[in-house]
Amino acid sequence: MEKRPNVLLTGTPGVGKTTLGKELAGRTGLTYINVGELAKEGNLYEGYDEEYSCPILDEDRVVDELDDKMNEGGIIVDYHGCDFFPERWFHIVFVLRTDNSILYDRLEKRSYSGKKLQDNIQCEIFQTIYEEAMESYHKEIVHQLPSNMPEDLEMNLEQIMQWVEQWMKDNN
């Protein structure tokens, strides 16, 4: 059986992880997993955050749920956090980045407001997810990708597909 890489797509909500992940899965044949959807389907929560009006992810249950799949390989994981995933899972990590004015508009369209909107914009300004990824994984596998315009999506897809192709040649 051919070995296939595991890819993590992470970044602040609204940067385009889901769009990129679904398109990438379609073009590479890798399996796409949106952790938010997985948690919803399996009720993998440990409570509810009133301040942000959202459920609180049970990270341990998510890891247990995904572990066998991740060990098989060929998975694209999409989530806005990354520090709770085991380091051994991923062969490469892409942190999507979006200019604040563009991100603000995207989050507003999703009905983010108040503290939730401000905190996500600050998260992007301070590169919080990028720093989390750099602390959680080997620095050489963590890459930032711009995700502002439709052209960025196409360039990111090309770049990641080339990486996947090379990884498959090197590891099979």
What can you tell me about this protein's structure?
The protein is of the alpha/beta class. The chain has a single domain (7-165), classed as 3-Layer(aba) Sandwich (Rossmann fold), CATH 3.40.50. Helix content is 51%, strand content 19%. The chain contains seven helices and seven strands. The protein has a five-stranded parallel sheet with strand order 2-5-1-6-7, with helices on both faces. It has a two-stranded antiparallel sheet with strand order 3-4. A hairpin with a 4-residue loop joins β3 and β4 (54-57). α1 (17-28) crosses α7 (150-171) and α4 runs antiparallel to α5 (114-125). It starts with 6 loop residues before the first strand and ends with a helix. 33% of the residues are buried.
Which features would summarize this protein structure in a list?
51% helix; alpha/beta; two-stranded antiparallel ribbon; 19% strand; 172 residues; Rossmann fold
Short characterization:
This protein has 172 residues and is of the alpha/beta class. It has seven helices and seven strands, in the order βαβαββαββαααβα.
In whole angstroms, the N-to-C terminal distance is 9 Å
Residue share in β-strands: 15-25%
Q: Radius of gyration, rounded?
A: 16 Å
CATH fold type: Rossmann fold
Count of DSSP helices?
7
Shape: globular
How many strands? 7
Stretches where pLDDT is under 50 for at least 5 consecutive residues are none
Q: Would you list the SSEs in sequence order as H and E?
A: EHEHEEHEEHHHEH
CATH class: Alpha Beta
Overall tally of structural domains: 1
